[in-house]
Amino acid sequence: MAFNFxxxxxxxxxxxxxxxxxxxxxxxxVKLNVAIAGEQKEIDKNYRAIGEWFxxxxxxxxxxxVREAVEAVNASKAKIAxxxxxxxxxxxxxxxxxxVPAGKKCPICGAESDSKFCPQCGAPMGE
Length: 127
Description:
This protein is mostly helical. It has helices spanning 5-57, 64-85, and strands at 104-105, 112-113.
């Protein structure tokens, strides 16, 4: 039984090529998923803007179809205000430096961070 190095080398190259193809496919899938998530965040942001405009524009004339949702939003806003008011007041020592903004703004969701990727949606933060 003879051992054939050429056959072994060919098989190793085939396995390496298949692994490289799978890695490339996985990387492209991740890129697509990040792009999809970014677009979904953009849709959500735009729907939120539409909803805020609608509620502001038709404040006294909210249709019955969305009245329950608007009331839930208003209840949540009231709860947030109540929770904010119950926070203890943090006193800054005299001469304390003001907070510096976190860094770059995410082009997808608007979160601020000084990292390479957005901590909220995972998108690249850019330059």
